[in-house]
Fold:
Amino acid sequence: MTAALTVTALVKRFGNHVAVDGISFEVPRGCVYGILGPNGAGKTTTLRMINDVIAPDAGEIVVLDGKRPGRDSAAFIGYLPEERGLYPKMRVLDIIQFMAELRGLAAGEAKRRAAAWLERLGLAQWGKNRVQELSKGMQQKVQFATALIHEPAIVILDEPWSGLDPINAEVLRQVVDEIRQSGRTVLFSTHQMEQAEKVCDAVCIIARGKKVIDGKLLDIKRASAAEGLIAIGFSDDVSRARADELLADRALVAERHAPHAGDLADCEVKLADGATPQKLLAALVAAEIGVRRFEVVVPTLHQIFVAKVGAAAAVAERVEAAS
Amino acid sequence: MIDRDTRVIAKREFLERVRSKWFVAGTLLGPIFMVAIVLIPALIAGQGGEGTKVQIADKTGVLAEPLAKALRDEQWHPEIVAPDTPETTLLERVRTKQLNGFITIAPDALDNGLIHYQGDNGSSQKVERTIFRVVRKVVLRARGLRQKLTPSQLDDMMKEVNVLPEHTTGKEAVSGLATFFIGYIVAFILYMAITLYGVSVMRSVVVEKTSRVMEFMVAAVKPRALMGGKILGVGAAGLLQITIWLAMGAITLAYRDEILGLFGASGGGAALPPVDAIQIAIVIVYFLLGYFFYSALYAAAGASVSSEQEIQQVQMPITMLLVIGIICLQMIGNDPRGSSSAVMTMVPLWSPMLMPMRYVLGGATLTDVGISLAILAVSTYLVVRAAAKIYRVGILLYGKRPGLRELVRWLRY
Structure:
């Protein structure tokens, strides 16, 4: 089976600014895929190109089985743009029906589903009200309904968590989960790593218009763990003092940091090239240092993000300074 | 030709408008205005002059009596005063409202001397015409008497002169005034429809930008379908309203005399000249195409702004273009076969207003009409495309209105 979405060497320039600079990634079917990046990384521009809101300058986008963005694929995509808006004077039921019709549903079916969605969102009694009479939260729910009502194979959400309170954020997470369980695909963008970590199967991290890393979340984490960050907790003060000398051995340990805030470890060390966790543990045991905790750290997505994007940003700055 | 997306958009625009309170109110109140437009001129034209109190200071000694009599026949209240009454005294009487006005007749009035009316109703066209007609008659008769004409010779000389100017370019003649009048009405209804609903199209585009709904729209449909749907939907709502108005107007016209009678006025004005089916068809086709063309212009203008406040600024130039068309109507009326008429009726900006009149006046052949219609149709399509492009590119820009140069660059996107 082909991927839900394949993006190849996508480029978009605005004047002299390159917003998206040769990004490629593939979204497998039935997964939840996150496009992560800091502000201005090119997330929204990428999603807009996938939705044919703007045309790419170069590169290729293939939706489902060889469809192009635009008219061809509109009925198969549900889109919640970053710029969210509804016609303020329209009645709630009418606007959901209207947007469903635009995504290819027949008028009668659109009306039936619109009513069902309002029921599901707990807004049934608001159907005859005008959009502008709804609270912001309610409007957001209506917008989700307009993105999902035609049961699209691919649901694209641009910064879906922005502006949501914790309760609604949780509701959204459940909705995303439901879509995945029904075998459909979710593609979303965010800079909120905690949310992404909870729902994503795979991610693509971009910064300054370039891809930094992509792949299954588990693979990325495993790869980052292999970079040899180890958290150590000592059993007593004597062991802690004795360890200082051993951890200063550059053959074993490249760097030593204080642990992350909230971590109960005494320190975190980065292994030197060629060293393995086994060697370090053996050395600790041989030196009779009491160890309460010895853990190969699996970094959080947030940590990976900061490490990768921070490095990318630093490289970019150096390149810019040199040119 | 019209795809499904366009239809869905048009349906929404149509229903949103027709369901609104303003539409219902406007549809019902419009005819009241129309009745007022028919009635008020009739009422105004019907009055003026009756009961005017005037004094006549006649230095010829022969004109005062017959003039007073003639004015009395016009329901005025004339009074003869001493010939040497100073003008200051008479002016004072007007100022204190004892009089509406006075007539001073110079001693040589029968030989081109001045007969001068000054009054508080001197600006009324009706008063002006009455004075002119009555005085002229009285003076002519007095001159006849001076030449010792017999009463029968006098009556013969004073008989009405009958003149009828009509318009023709080789076919059956029609009343020039009435034809011109119809052309004016058609152009004016078009002007009203365009300013009412064209602006509505523009607002509809701007609302999409200000409410940020357009990104969703562009993701779901082609901007061209969006623009086309808007123009068609708003257009259908407008046409529905105009049709209702015209029906009501036709009823009003059919019963005009009865309605005027209720207000104590009598019917006037020229009867409608006969029009044939081709002329009606041409009027309707130009009306529709002109309407869509200008709606598209408004849509393009709307796509280039990003806030309600800026609407005023972009609306102005389009309104000016329309006004130029209205002004040129006179030119077509004066010289329907001239070359400037030929040029103006080919330009899509003005052909909708001008070509129907040029054709009715016999200045254009059906071939000319066909060419002009083709230009108009193609231009409308191009403007819709341009509007769609401007709209799409405008998504990326909020806040700043693009300059003309920037707009041209957007069109090449």
